[in-house]
Amino acid sequence: GSSTGRRLLGGALAGGHQAAGIAKAGLQVGAAASWLVMDHEHPFVGTASGDTLIDRWIFALGDQAIRDVIVRGKKVIENRRHALDEEIAPRFAEVLRKIQA
After folding, report:
1. Which GO terms describe its molecular function (predicted)?
2. How many other CB atoms are there within 10 angstroms of residue 18's CB atom?
3. Beta bridge partners of residue 37, listed in sequence order
4. What are phi and psi of 72, to 5 degrees?
5. Are 82 and 76 in contact (CB under 8 A)?
6. How far is CA 24 from CA 14, 27, 28, 72, 77, in A?
7. Which residue of 54, 58, 70, 74 lies most exposed, with the fewest beta carbons within 10 A?
8. Going from the N-terminus, what domains does the chain have, and what CATH number goes with each?
9. How far is the C-alpha of 70 from the C-alpha of 34, rounded, in Å?
């Protein structure tokens, strides 16, 4: 049967599309595309494909597997760094200080 990771990913994508009001998923002419690029040099990524890769990503690797993220055609993460890292990091640290106080 289908892998657990594939079922979870499919459900998450379907729910995200529904919440965002996207009627039809997939690549479409004229539509803004979003995707991620996995790090093929990571041993868990470079030695897997298909459902095995999805399972490894979801259950073992998390964000370690992701190199780049493109959202609606705009690269927001490149080489594991968010475009706004320098702005986000100090604000995040401040939030953590407030929570821990």
Report:
1. hydrolase activity, acting on carbon-nitrogen (but not peptide) bonds
2. 10
3. 68
4. 50, 40
5. yes
6. 9, 9, 9, 15, 25
7. 74
8. 4-100 (2.30.40)
9. 5
Closest alpha carbon to 43 in 52, 30, 33, 34: 52
pLDDT tens digits along 6-55: 999 999 988 988 898 877 767 778 877 889 999 999 999 999 999 999 99
- Distance in angstroms (rounded) separating the CA atoms of residues 47 and 4: 19
The residue among 40, 41, 33, 39 whose CA lies nearest residue 70 is: 33
Amino acid at 20: A
pTM for this structure?
Answer: 0.74
Contacts 24+ apart (CB under 8 A), 67-76: 67/37, 67/38, 67/39, 68/36, 68/37, 69/35, 69/36, 69/37, 70/33, 70/34, 70/35, 70/36, 70/37, 71/34, 72/32, 72/33, 72/34, 73/32, 73/33, 73/34
Classify 40 in phi/psi space as left (phi over 0), alpha (psi -120 to 50) or beta. alpha
The structure tokens listed for 29 are 């002419």
